[in-house]
Amino acid sequence: MKSKQHLKEKIIKNIFFLSSLSSILFLLGTSFILFKEGLPLFREIDLKTFLWGKSWYPTYNPPEFGLLPLLLGTLWTTLGALIIAVPLGVSAAIYISELATPKIKDYLKLAIEMLTGVPSVIYGFLGIVVLGPWLQNLLDLPIGLCALTASLLLALMAIPTITSLSEEALFSVSKEYKEASYALGATRWETIIKVTVPAASSGISTAVLLGMGRVIGETMTVLMVAGGAAVIPHSFLQPVRTITATIALEMGETVVGSVHYYALFAIACVLFIISLALNLSADYFLYKFRRTSR
Amino acid sequence: MVDEILQSKNDLKMQIRNLNFYYGTHQVLKNINLNIKSNAITAIIGPSGCGKTTFIRTLNRMNDIILGIKIEGDILFDHKNIYDDDIDVVDIRRKIGMVFQRPNPFPKSIFENIAYGLKINNLTVNKGELRERVEIALRGAALWEEVKDRLNTSALDLSGGQQQRLCIARALAVQPKVILFDEPCSALDPIATAKIEELIQELKEKYTIVIVTHNMQQAARASDFTAFLMLGELVEFDITEKIFTNPSQKITEDYITGRFG
After folding, report:
1. Does A185 sit within 8 Å of B121, measured CB to CB?
2. Are residues A152 and A211 in the same domain?
3. ipTM of the complex in this document
């Protein structure tokens, strides 16, 4: 009887163990397939041509598979989004965590949570119908769908992540630090800027990196509003194309096993590596933050 | 006896008059009257929850940060009420420094911990003076010799006792007149405690000291005056020797002899 009980416990334990293993299996499986389908590209073209290639013309004869325009398109829109989202998101977090009354705090947190839930296709839609034409008129552009439009919308998507995670980091800064600061004759503002924010800085870094991860992986919005031109960007006012948008656009048209097919997997590998690096650095800062905050 | 000693107004650094304090509707301090003498150590003792910490935090307006409090009465500092409308609370907190229960150095370097108060109050004009003032503060807290070779390492790497002395140095750096100690040794071992007590004795030459403690021996050996607080009321206030040898109230005697607490 007792051994039967024991066996049952053991089975249950192993079921849960396997469930927890599954996420690791999915991660390994995904990377295996990505690299298995991506690496054959380098039988056709060499790594250097791929990494430093300045043009992406998959349907030309002969086709060109240069990573640079797409990678820079991704980094360009991401950079633009962060320039907008980091100051806004962190300031909002400071307001919510340190300055707002409890009631306003609740409303703002709710609003930000709801912003997280907006499907990205809706942002794309807004970009095409409202923001794009508006920017086109305002800045007298030949086309309203450009890197700036994409960056603005991506910023909207990054802000909830950056705000809520930064707010958490600021909120968990020990009250004792703030009291020590006040007791030395610091004002509220001095305390926030010189004590609370620095004490939360690694937590805020985590927030920014995760916000960046959200933006880099975003597909639908940039596909709809970034303009779609696979050229190396020189300004925020020209159309660009990101890695994600390229994969989404072209995957349906390629023949399985063709050079183009392998090339799409190869750029997916690049994206995967960037995202992985971002998440690992975010984890590192989180670990650092947990160690210093008491 | 205490009234005779505390008669001369010039000797009084702080005077607490008819102080009432409420958290919401709950009254925590009830009509407290107390004089705090310059360059002396005044200890506040009493059982847990008697309002000691609340009381000491009214003296530099640290309770202002908390929502939903109400305060009545006067607290005079150099004969001026610190709760008057024209008082700059930031200036009050600089002049009346505070050391907390748990050592709470900032997660910055040792140097930056001391320099912080000097910088925000614009007390130094150049880097040389800043370094000098940091050194003076650390010497004042008997910490200089232990940390002079590692001023740029994190303050969080210091031991608990060193961290608390760093907090004292940090308070000294902004040149306060009064230093409030809220159970400064409650998180420390006996050796670190002895060092802090010794330091407090030295500090009274230059500063007026108020110390909250739950440790009766500490009050008895380290203070000049003792106030016994219970359930938010000031039961007895006298010179320390009198409180511990011949208290006038039965309840004070019961508390200091350990019959409750």
Report:
1. yes
2. yes
3. 0.90
